[in-house]
Design brief:
globular, binds zinc ion, alpha/beta, 34% helix, 394 residues, 7-stranded mixed β-sheet
């Protein structure tokens, strides 16, 4: 995938990722992989190649995915996979995500260092996929949620060591497990797991090395523990309360609601394909999630797009569904939901992608329709451009 030396994209509507109303009749000029200018269509910008689109958006940023997982109905079975099988799966999921318009992902936990190695292979141009911000292995308490792929840790000093291990392996960020979760048998989503003290120690260590920290937190108290410990983002957050919303606001912490994760399990609850405990836990969370996340959004908590892709029926190449759910469940406008999945997610990850303006990476999607009148147009971009290279053109 080589960038075209210069590329002009002429579009009827330009959604720049900020949530501002779209600009009409604009041309995005791309040179050496970056956007160098956004001009009017009648400015007659010339380039080696010119493409046309009805509308253009930034490439999507998925702030929460697991590249080793592919949406299997029974996640329990993936623990039986060999490291080599996991590698093959990760490569394929990264490719599918990019071709569907996801140009950056944060991988929040896997058994091996697949996402780390894949990040480097993609950056080197030998493999096709999004820019990857990997967390390495998630830090969980002994026997905690996801322990079979995580780094079990107990006590503040061991938490610091566990962070150092992820950094040594090449991780860019850190993932903490603050409460139980849906996909681990016996882990109760509402109950605390890592303590506030353990999380604070991990965060101090991570920030020493410039690494940001995300916490899986579903239970009310665990969400507040993670917020007070100082995480950059709460993942899921389904059982948050008013006090938690106040701490989010005070600290400027992001919320990545992963609406698709519980929704996809819920939508397939009667298929008979998922373990009973998974269906039971997701069903119990479904209404609370809709209510609480909506409340947090209306209160002004910063919502960043992330789907937890890889969980049951929640595919890497279907990230547009999370954008649709932010629209239908949180009642964000389609443009605002797009902004959550581009600009806001980019800010959370600390990357400069996610906004279409001069001096940003040329990660953009060419669409056949207008997402404000046709929310489904984001599901199948006509072309995906990453770093100035055309990944796919349909
Ligand atoms: Zn996850």
């Amino acid at each position: 995938m080589q960038p075209t030396p210069s590329l002009a994209v002429r579009t009827g509507l330009l959604y720049d990722g900020t949530g501002k109303p779209p600009r009409r009749n604009a041309t995005v000029l791309v040179e050496r992989g970056r956007i160098t200018r956004v001009a009017n269509n009648d400015d007659n910008v010339t380039a080696d190649r010119t493409l046309q689109a009805s509308s253009v958006t930034p490439g999507l940023i998925n702030a929460h995915c697991h590249l080793e997982m592919s949406g299997e109905a029974n996640t329990g079975l993936i623990v039986l996979m060999t490291p080599i099988q996991r590698t093959l799966v990760s490569v394929e999921n990264a490719r599918k995500a990019l071709l569907a318009g996801v140009t950056t992902v944060r991988d929040l936990g896997g058994a091996d260092s697949n996402a780390i190695e894949l990040r480097d292979a993609i950056a080197a141009g030998t493999h096709v996929g999004p820019t990857i911000i990997p967390a390495g292995r998630a830090l969980c308490m002994t026997g905690g949620h996801g322990y079979f792929i995580g780094r079990e840790t107990d006590g503040p000093w061991d938490a610091r060591k566990a962070v150092r291990e992820q950094r040594k392996a090449g991780a860019d960020c850190i993932k903490l497990i603050a409460t139980g979760g849906v996909l681990t048998k016996g882990a109760v989503p509402g109950l605390d797991q890592l303590t506030e003290e353990e999380m604070r120690a991990a965060i101090v260590e991570a920030s020493t090395h410039g690494m940001r920290v995300a916490a899986h937190a579903i239970g009310t108290n665990g969400i507040k523990n993670a917020l007070r410990a100082g995480v950059n983002s709460i993942e899921h957050g389904h059982l948050l309360d008013d006090e938690a919303i106040a701490i989010f606001m005070e600290r400027g912490t992001y919320l990545v609601p992963t609406i698709a994760a519980v929704t996809c399990i819920f939508e397939h609850a009667h298929d008979g394909t998922q373990p009973d405990f998974v269906v039971r836990k997701a069903t119990a969370l479904y209404d609370a999630m809709r209510h609480n996340i909506g409340k947090a959004y209306r209160a002004g908590v910063m919502i960043a797009g992330g789907s937890d892709a890889g969980t049951p029926y929640n595919y890497h190449e279907k990230y547009a569904y999370e954008v649709e759910l932010m629209n239908t469940i949180l009642e964000m406008s389609p443009n605002r939901a797009l902004s959550a999945a581009t600009k806001v997610a980019g800010e959370l990850l600390g990357v400069d992608a996610g906004v279409l303006e001069a001096d940003r990476p040329a990660d953009l999607l060419l669409l056949d329709g207008d997402l404000e009148t046709d929310a489904l147009t984001l599901r199948a971009p006509r072309a995906v451009i990453k770093g100035g290279a055309i990944a796919i053109e349909r």
